Amino acid sequence: MNLSTFVQKAVKAERNELSPVIGSFMFAFLLMSSYSMLKPIRDAMASDWSDATVSTLWTGTFLFSFLAVSAYGWVASRVSMKWLVPGTYVFFALSFIAFYAAYLSSSEGLQVWIGQAYYIWVSVFALFHISVFWSFMTQVYTRDQAARLFATIATGISAGAIFGPGITIYFAPLLGTANLILLASALLLSSIPLILFLNQSISKTHHSDDSKHRISNKALGGSFYAGFAQLVTHRQLRGIGGFIFIFTGISTFVYFAQKNVLVDFSIEERAQILAGLELSVNIMTFVIGIFLTNRLIKRFGLATSLAIVPVLVAVGLLLVAGNPAIWMIIGLQFVRRVGNYAVTRPSREMLFTAVDPVARFKSKPVVDIICYRGGDVFWSWCFTLLTAGLGLGLSSIAMIGAGIATVWAALAVYLGKEFEQSEKNQDTPYAKNVNNTG
Questions:
Q1: Looking at residue 342, what DSSP letter applies?
Q2: Distance between CA 78 and CA 178 in Å, rounded?
């Protein structure tokens, strides 16, 4: 058995899909390698700031995310679809090069402000780069292909999230954090040829002439606020938005607990510890994504694959409530992140394979970014209120979190069942009230 045959069988890809899948994997790898070098630098800064300061920065992140998504919607209405995705990543790469130059040329006092601006901008990029990536993937692949291939493509994200922290661990002491920002920008720019290749390969991956999956040479047209309008009016998009909003509640509580236990370490030690966590999480994610996720979705359906992580998190939070030790917090963070990257995220992205390009490229960033960053603001201030305002300890907060995770699981089952029913009926409820609203 040659290598290509082995890869085809392992990832359940057909022969004509193999090159696009490898290209998509490498695209995801480069994106996440870049982000995973930027993220530990961002998170290492946070331990020098109070909970209120971080909550304020998250509020600023939401506002900047709102502006960024609005600007993206305006550009998508006017720029050819062929150039929209590569142009987005070129813009972000240049912005990080600008941060690099500003940091090196600034005084120590000004570097504090630049660091906080960098924290906000990386937080915007954290969701934007992945949201645009998956928007593009749902354009490249059909619904059937998504069920077979998305989990494998997502392992490219995990591989990049292994490579990026590895670079940070070994080279941060040698190169310094500022130079890592420049290297991350170079990796981001190196993804552009892969985007152009995937643009050309779409017709080869489709068995039929599906207009939903054509990359048009024209802009989407319509208004910049169409994505916001669809989030309000479209039932399924509201459901996905709610799913993401609740997810951020769990993520926020665990993130703040993690932040507070690292306060006694230096910024270099924090960066290395967090990079080590990234490395272990993504090794496990890679293994699960290659060998388990697509088989889980095929065997048990989307409802189960969406709900399994919320259920595990609810159980984990109950265990933390009974024993709020540091290793329990780290363990819960590990399970939550592995489950999200390996199972929940690929499953959630399948929901967008049944909608048109306007929904993919305008509504999806609104759902992914505004609901996520809006959730960050809401839940971060909730955490601050519970700890600084009401004086609640970790056990009490974990009990509250377990209740939130239970609601999250119920919503996951609802969204999965809706999608599965649409497949049985050969209908696309996600596309209703979405088409022609650009």
A1: I
A2: 35
CA–CA separation, 293 and 148 (whole Å): 9
* 289 CB-side CA count, 13 A: 28
Unique residue bearing structure tokens 């305002």? 389
Report the alpha-carbon distance of residue 394 to residue 8 in Å, rounded: 47
% residues pLDDT > 90 (the chain): 11
CA dihedral (278, 283, 284, 290) in degrees, to 10, reads 130
Q: Rounded to an integer, what distance in angstroms lies between the CA atom of residue 113 and that of residue 363?
A: 32
C-beta of residue 237 within 8 angstroms of C-beta of residue 367: yes
- For the chain, helix, strand, coil in percent to 5 are 85, 0, 15
Q: How far is Cα 313 from Cα 68, in angstroms, rounded to an integer? A: 31
- pLDDT higher than 80, residue 154: yes
Per-residue pLDDT tens for 314-333?
998 888 888 777 778 778 88
Instruction: Give me 420's structure tokens.
Output: 């599965």
Helix (H, G, I), strand (E, B) or coil at 390: coil
Contacts of 403 (CB under 8 A, 6+ apart): none
Range of 104-108, 228-232, 299-303, 365-369 with top mean pLDDT: 299-303
Sign of the Cα torsion 164, 167, 173, 177 reads negative
Q: Round to whole Å and give the CA distance between 35 and 13.
A: 28
| Apex 119 CA angle, 115 and 123, nearest 5 | 165
pLDDT of 11 higher than 70: no
Q: E strands of 169-298, at which residues?
A: none
**Tokens standing for residue 264:** 């006694």
Q: Which pLDDT band holds residue 28 (cuts at 50, 70, 90)? A: very high
pLDDT at 328: 80
- Residue ranges of domains in the chain, CATH in brackets: 15-204+218-424 (1.20.1250.20)
- Ordered DSSP codes for 121-163: HHHHHHHHHHHHHHHHHHHHS-HHHHHHHHHHHHHHHHHHHHH
- pLDDT of 94 reads 94
Within 8 A by CB and 6+ apart from 191, the residues are 27, 30, 31, 89
Give the mean pLDDT of 183-209: 78
Closest CA to 360 of 248, 216, 159: 216
State pTM to two decimals.
0.70
pLDDT at residue 377 greater than cutoff 70:
yes
- Backbone region of residue 28 per phi and psi (left: phi > 0; alpha: psi in -120 to 50; beta: other values): alpha
- The token duo for 232 is 């309000």
